[in-house]
Amino acid sequence: MANSSGFLAAISLLLLPALCLTFSVENPTDRRLLVLLDDLSLKSSHSVFFNSLKSRGFDLDFKLAEDPKLALQRYGQYLYDGLIIFAPSTDRFGGSLDSKSIADFVDSGRDLILAADDSASDLIRSIATECGVDFDEDASAMVVDHSSYAVSDIDGYHTLIAADDFVKSDAILGKTKIEAPVLFRGIAHSLNPANSLVLKVLSASPSAYSANPNSKLSSPPQLTGSAISLVSVMQARNNARVMISGSLQMFSNRFFRSGVQKAGSPNKYEKSGNEQFVTELSKWVFHERGHLKAVNLVHHKAGEMDEPAMYRIKDDLEFSVEIYEWSGKNWEPYVADDVQVQFYMMSPYVLKTLSTDKKGLYETSFKVPDVYGVFQFKVEYEKLGYTTISLSKQIPVRPYRHNEYERFITTAYPYYGACFSTMAGFFVFSFVYLYHK
């Protein structure tokens, strides 16, 4: 029995680091990623992308998509903090992995990168659909663009796209502008209009369409123009992030290092924008940028420092909260002019924009409304590319006590005068009535 206990303890110690390794709000680094591949040769053909992740502190676990030992969790604990699926043709994952378990993985707050191509299986398409993205139903269709194609002697069908319609967001793509177009060869997808959380990051040009390049069009294509999304992202309500690309080649070393010239443009670039685009976007997906945290929500009466158990109507109070942004290495003050606080009961009675000292502290002051009940301080902050902040703190508000009212209210002076004048008039009337002959 003693030997058995010792063996179990040793196994527990070995498993503990893997089970405990998870995304930390306080220190979102050194995370473990599961990379699923169709073919292990992708490790070398896409090595620049993978090495970029490793250099930023990620631990990559490469597995074939059909590995019978695949599992995202063990003993109720997730083994990985992120998932990369570079297996577009896989019809069925190995082990306990399926589309539902991947959806649960995202629902738990973890991140996902999914890349497809013209061999995308129904399984891959169903995972994308769960994330608000619908790939073209025609399995043989690819994105074709006869105006914004990449100048190439090899591609005569204009399926090699030079795309440069990026989302306007420094939080998602970084502050450094991507000058060179991104090389894209793959399939089109559209966004589900019922899903407000999904966003185009790289869009096709107005002249693009989705069709089989090897056959003539017998009917107008279903997806055309800027309705086509080449790369999309989704940030769930639990701040989990998902990236979906219609091209696996976009991540390849070949596309990273290739020169690019967009048809009709005199500008020729020695290196495409793929590496910068994919690197910066992966930083956003894995919370290396655009990740906010709010701490030290404080409120108190004006002139005091201690937080009261309740407020009285018409009290003057001060409110403050600290907000920081993860830079990839440490927490830095987040600077914005659109953070607001609500003093809320059924509806906001007070809505104030917080001022900042540009060191992370946001504060304001206001008067408690002349309504008593149970209120909440609420900070709900949503901004493109940033994690959602949702904070609330409950506090009751009481009316005046009987001994807290003013002894003589200024606005009641006319009533006081009417009362005393009535008394005086009655006295005069009584005197005159009794003694007048």
Give the termini separation: 122 Å
What order do the strands of the largest sheet run in, or round the barrel if closed?
2-1-5-6-16-15-13-10
The strand count comes to: 28
Give the overall shape.
elongated
Helix content: 10-25%
Uncertain runs are 1-22
Percentage beta strand: 25-35%
Structural class: alpha+beta
Largest sheet: 8 strands, mixed
Question: How many separate helices?
Answer: 9
Question: Rg to the nearest angstrom?
Answer: 32 Å
Integer average pLDDT:
88
Keywords:
22% helix, 437 residues, alpha+beta, eight-stranded mixed sheet, 9 helices
SSE layout and pairings?
Elements: H1 2-20, E1 32-37, H2 42-45, H3 47-55, E2 59-64, E3 73-74, E4 77-78, E5 82-86, H4 99-107, E6 111-115, H5 122-130, E7 133-135, E8 142-145, E9 161-163, E10 165-166, H6 170-173, E11 182-184, E12 189-191, E13 198-203, E14 208-211, E15 229-235, E16 241-245, H7 253-257, E17 260-261, E18 268-269, H8 274-285, E19 291-301, E20 311-312, E21 316-326, E22 331-333, E23 340-345, E24 347-353, E25 355-356, E26 361-367, E27 373-381, E28 389-398, H9 413-435
Helix pairs in contact: 3-8, 4-5
